[in-house]
Design goal:
Oligomer: heterodimer
Largest sheet of chain B: 2 strands, antiparallel
CATH class of one domain in chain A: Alpha Beta
CATH architecture of chain B: Up-down Bundle
CATH topology of one domain in chain A: Ubiquitin-like (UB roll)
Largest sheet of chain A: 3 strands, antiparallel
CATH architecture of one domain in chain A: Roll
Radius of gyration of chain B: 20 Å
CATH class of chain B: Mainly Alpha
Number of domains of chain B: 1
Helix content of chain A: 25-40%
Structural class of chain A: alpha+beta
CATH topology of chain B: Ferritin
Bound molecules: fe (ii) ion
Structural class of chain B: mainly alpha
Number of helices of chain A: 3
Radius of gyration of chain A: 34 Å
Distance between the termini of chain A: 121 Å
Strand order of the largest sheet of chain B: 1-2
Distance between the termini of chain B: 23 Å
Number of strands of chain A: 3
Chain lengths: 135, 329
Amino acid sequence: MVTSLDPRIRRADLEHSPASSGLNPNEHWDTFAIFHQDKRGTAHEFVGIVHAPDPEMALVFAKEQYGRRKKTVNIWAVRSTDIYTFQHKDEDMFSTVPEKTYREASGYPVRKRINKYLEELKAMRHKPVEEEEEA
Amino acid sequence: MYGNAYIENDTKLVQSAQVEDPEKLAEFEARIARGEKIEPDDWMPAEYRRQVLRMIEQHAHSEIIGALPEGTWITRAPTLKRKLALIAKVQDEVGHGHLLYAAAETLGKSREAMINDLLSGKSKYSNVFNYPAKTWADIAVIGFLVDAGAIVNQLANAKGSYGPYCRALERICYEESFHLKQGYDAFVALATGTPMQREMVQDALNRWWFPPLMHFFGPPDTISVHTEKLMRWKVKMMSNEEMRQDFMEQYVPKIWELGLTLPDPKLKKKEDGSWEYTQPDWDEFFRVINGDGPCNKERLAVRRYAEENGRWVREALMNPTIKHIVPYA
Ligand SMILES: [Fe+2]
Ligand SMILES: [Fe+2]
């Protein structure tokens, strides 16, 4: 016998409500990945998931769960089954060549090359004189 | 909010540990020792998966059930500001439940299955929510001290090894600090108010200190091989007693400062800095966790009622082609 302090619960007459048969598989629907944007022009960031029957409801739930406190200007919802991903265990596929400075501006020391050239040039200008003296 | 209502049941688990690949296990333990997080698609021992899943699931249930005693008082909050704060807090708690169910789902159990285990009584939640909130002062004590206990527990767990749980806790802890502060504010308002208000808050404090708050972190741990392993795997981050001591160290002085008392004549800080206190009745702790507390039946009956009466809405929205998928993160 439930004798609650809460009048609303007493009114609900829990004793005579049907026994719960439990939730069926998928009764809480699919999951959607939620991407949150806190400022116009910045990237949407993955913040978590919601369970929802369709994308519209996913946005409604995401607004409550991920947009109720922090600054929010926009939210994306993407059905989890629509995300295609590599496996983390295959992450070695990204280590192709160990040295990738050839893709970086810093991999091209142009000034060093110029300085070396100018020094050689300077040395060349002195060289003929030395040769004359020797002759 | 949450407490360590965490009951160990060793026998099956010890057996499952024996069949793990020793090389993979060593690499797994080395990763944890280096402070790396374990992610859903990483290899993990079956026992780790079970333990982490059970812990997160119990935590999620505690958030959902924890919304009930406080939700009762929303309609009777004494001012508009207190009502706004309480609505926001209760909404956060339900949100915490969702975040935690999502973290648990990454380990392969569906949310429907978790809720069914809650409704059938198979899965546990924190004992603290099986006690009634009799007056508005109870809501102040819950917001202040139960959430304070939850913060001690959750800050420790946030340094654990399972990535999705740590990330959920990061956000949860941020919101808990608001829960604690609004509870403290309501508590202080009563403690510094009229004689009748002071009497109310003292009465609530007396009822909540023994047993719910003193039970909150669970009985002192027996140091078993099992507990040591949970600590090595960074599933359990602090012993129950360490958390209780931390809680008393932070909050007993804040209560005494207001001239309020706690119903434990033995309670005092010892010279070594630790707190002496009367052991609560641990038999009652086990009775309540096994279903025989003042509000267990009501809490589960309300949850079942909500599931049954919400079913037609879910069915109306149901798309028959939907298939369950384990979320990536
Ligand atoms: Fe809380
Ligand atoms: Fe919470």
